[in-house]
Design brief:
Length: 413
């Protein structure tokens, strides 16, 4: 019989919050309540210091110089790739480092899809995709004669799985799917969906932007073919991120951008490309940024992704209860599996006006269409306000947020 392990010490969320210098500031004379982490996350001092230290002590280009700094920079950059690979449970050679999800999805579109799709082929997308997982497929469809098919949602913002599977017909070559919706917070059953897609020979491209910062993601266990993520939502610097691809797919894909770093040999008669994943990393990369991203993965791992998921579930439950109690407030997206994102509308207030008035109370929420026009068209609304939470938010901030909305309501009455 195995002895049950004692519960690990719960994280000290107050101390963790203190790691984020920006969260200590005020806006409009009020303590900042930052509820826009789905847009971009705040950075802990460890990440800021790592970027600073790189520029102060190690700055050089990667893979070019043999001098000491060149070696240090290359080791730091490749070390970051290894850290991120460990975080996602993938092999480092399957991870293309790039500027973020937008680049990663375009890479799949141009390098994998463009040479393979043709008239009659279908790219299947869900209604809840971010524009980054729609527009590249439209561009490729235009050039190949393929068409886009949309998998619709249920009113609560879950995917209609029966409709999705019915839409997976023989013409579908590729499925683009968000792991977690940036507008509704819906967590899609990616593993099950990828299994169904694979049974039908459909290649799966998962947009993990809103999943990786908030829960443990074992990428190979999902059974997808491509997984895209962005660093700036997971405590890392902007302009960082990665595409994971199954090794055999990566090996079959031609380069997307040409230039230095991605070649072994160049002659005017033709060039020999570097091995994957380096043949997708043309030019000087965001070295310091990725070093920071590597440190961000250490930071998140030290807290524990399961603890982060549990903390954010608590914050979501609290915020949902507090907002539901406000007369005239409507929440869009109430799927049973939901991450800590709340899109909402308040009777009598345009989303931008509401966000502006909340800002005056120190509360930062995003308003607009959240780079998801087709999703807002589904709900028939021009814009929403969106509050998105991270583990560094507090229950006290949720109370202040709800109070700020009540104040706006009184002002508008
Ligand atoms: N997909 C989703 C679901 C997102 O939330 C975002 C960022 N808003 C992106 C893609 C694009 O990420 P990036 O701009 O970092 O490339």
């Amino acid at each position: 019989m195995t002895t049950p392990r004692p519960d690990p010490t719960p994280p000290d969320w107050t101390a963790i919050r203190a790691d984020f210098p920006l969260l200590q500031r005020e806006v409009h004379g009020k303590p900042l309540v930052y509820l826009d982490s789905a847009n971009t996350g705040q950075k802990p001092a460890a990440v800021i210091d790592a970027v600073d230290d790189f520029f102060r002590r190690h700055n050089a280009n990667v893979s070019r110089a043999v001098h000491a700094l060149g070696t240090e920079a290359t080791e730091a950059y490749e070390g970051a790739r290894a850290k991120l690979a460990g975080f996602l449970k993938v092999h480092r050679d399957e991870l293309v480092l790039c500027s973020g999800t937008t680049f990663a999805l375009n890479l799949v579109a141009y390098s994998w899809a463009l040479p393979r799709l043709g008239p009659g082929d279908v790219v299947l997308l869900t209604r809840m995709e971010h524009h980054a997982n729609i527009v590249p497929w439209q561009l490729v469809a235009e050039r190949t004669g393929a068409t886009i098919r949309v998998a619709e949602l249920l009113p609560d913002g879950s995917l209609d799985l029966d409709a999705l599977y019915a839409a997976m017909t023989g013409e579908v070559k590729l499925l683009g799917l968000a792991h977690v919706s940036n507008v509704l917070g819906t967590v899609n059953p990616v593993r099950e969906i990828c299994r169904e897609a694979r049974r039908r020979g459909i290649v799966t491209v998962v947009d993990g932007s809103q999943a990786v910062p908030h829960r443990a993601v074992d990428v190979p266990a999902l059974g997808c073919d491509f997984y895209a993520l962005t660093g700036h939502k997971m405590c890392g610097p902007t302009g960082t991120g990665a595409l994971w691809a199954r090794r055999e797919l990566l090996a079959q894909m031609p380069p997307f951008l040409g230039g230095g770093e991605m070649i072994k040999e160049v002659r005017f008669e033709g060039s020999v490309f570097n091995d994957p994943p380096h043949h997708f990393e043309a030019g000087t990369p965001n070295i310091a940024g990725h070093v920071g991203l590597g440190v961000a993965t250490d930071y998140l791992s030290a807290i524990g992704m399961d603890a982060i998921e549990a903390r954010e579930a608590e914050l979501l439950a609290h915020a949902t209860e507090a907002l539901t109690a406000i007369d005239g407030l409507r929440i869009l997206g109430t799927a049973p599996e939901k991450a800590a994102v709340i899109s909402f509308l308040l009777d009598g207030a345009h989303a931008h006006d509401l966000a502006t008035l909340l800002d005056l109370e120190g509360v930062a929420v995003r308003s607009g269409q959240h780079c998801a026009h087709p999703l807002l068209q589904f709900y028939g609304v021009p814009a929403t306000c969106r509050a998105s939470f991270a583990f560094y938010n507090t229950h006290d901030e949720i109370e202040r947020f709800a109070e700020a909305i009540r104040k706006v309501r009184r002002l508008l009455a």
